[in-house]
């Protein structure tokens, strides 16, 4: 037997009972295998840079392409019009991205399954119309009307999911039928006038209006939100560190946590300063960010979230693991319908009305584009809810920048389409690179 033949031990618990080396000798001295993440951290900045380049070469790009693209977009528009990065314009971008962004959050769930939902635009328009009928025509309490509207959206999504999961109708077909059918119902409810005006002081409508800001104290609210975000990040990171220590698995060192939280603090308070130079942080943006944080927790920290990723990664493997695939599919489409209804309320808050244009036009395409451009894979099993924010920043920046330059809407469509195609190409190349590197 060669003297170099060794047994590989578990990096945490040591060699398992009965482990043998390549020659079948259970008495050979074990070699301790160190978790590569520990090696990275021991090497300091050099280790992190090496790990970063390894991931990029292996196709694990994360949010890098969209962040680079956003920097390029902002640089180009700022060079063409100095008002682009002004406080007022950035405030407008942050406000108007929220409505379509809510639709994109729901679509992230569907895309993680490797499916598509073409009905969210129509469902959002129908939701604003249902709310208007409840509140204006039937004098219902606005908050009760809001709750019923969101429940209606979730039930519509669950119906789509049932046809898909139980009957076997392709998601593309059933949601295309929903796109047409729910749009027709919206037109019928609006009647010949095509518009139902909603009192601007009606609870949710006032809350989501463009002139409504967090705590109605713009400066205090912005800094309070920034501080709250930093505190929650500290608590979450140190909590995870403590849990991983107790489990005896690799954990982030305190210095890394402080660096990450410090960067978040800088970004948060700079954003607060910029928005305070305009009018402050809109309620719509606050609710959108809160929804992102909650959904991110659900996807990354709960059993349900892991099941969604598992089904998106492989249906047969998920079934063999005991996951109720039809239930996950129905639930995901219900979530998409619920967020579409919330997005419809955001649109209603922007105009204080339910109109024929609500959820129409290019709303659906922009919501899908936002999720994909932000980094959620069209092939399922990979993505993050924060892609809804990143993608909407890109799309809304393009829209606002072209408006400042007095460009035709047709140019906006062409540029947005090009960016979407680029995002899908990057996703496809990334998946191919990961397969070549054995990580897909």
Q: What is this structure's SSE topology?
A:
Layout: E1 7-9, E2 30-32, H1 36-42, H2 45-57, H3 64-80, H4 87-112, H5 120-137, H6 142-167, H7 171-190, E3 195-197, H8 203-207, H9 218-247, H10 254-276, H11 283-301, H12 303-313, H13 315-320, H14 325-351, E4 353-355, H15 363-373, H16 387-404, H17 409-436
Parallel strand pairs: 1-2
Antiparallel strand pairs: 3-4
Helix pairs in contact: 1-2, 3-16, 4-11, 4-14, 4-15, 4-16, 5-6, 5-7, 5-14, 6-7, 6-14, 9-10, 11-12, 12-14, 15-16, 15-17, 16-17
Fill in the keyword field for this structure:
440 residues, mainly alpha, ABC transporter involved in vitamin B12 uptake, BtuC, two-stranded parallel ribbon, two-stranded antiparallel ribbon, 17 helices, 4 strands
Structure description:
- The chain has 440 residues and is mostly helical.
- The protein has 17 helices and four strands.
- It has a domain of 290 residues: ABC transporter involved in vitamin B12 uptake, BtuC, CATH 1.10.3470.
- Helix 1 crosses helix 2 and helix 3 runs parallel beside helix 16.
- The longest helix is centred in the middle third of the chain and has 30 residues.
- It is globular.
- The two termini are 36 Å apart.
- 37% of the residues are buried.
- The N terminus is likely disordered.
Q: Which CATH architecture of the domain at 65-212 and 282-423 is right? A: Orthogonal Bundle
How many E strands? Answer: 4
What average pLDDT do the residues reach? 81
Number of helices: 17
- By CATH, the topology of the domain at 65-212 and 282-423 is ABC transporter involved in vitamin B12 uptake, BtuC
Strand order of the largest sheet: 1-2
In terms of structural class, how would the helical and strand content be classed?
A: mainly alpha
- Measured between the Cα atoms of the first and last residue, the distance is 36 Å
**What is the makeup of the main sheet?**
2 strands, parallel
Instruction: Give unreliable regions as ranges.
Output: 1-23
Helix content: 55-70%
Q: Any idea of the CATH class of the domain at 65-212 and 282-423? A: Mainly Alpha
Could you state the oligomeric state of the chains shown?
Answer: single chain
The coarse silhouette is globular
**Rg, Å, rounded:** 25 Å
Strand content: under 5%
What is the element string, with H for helices and E for strands?
EEHHHHHHHEHHHHHHHEHHH
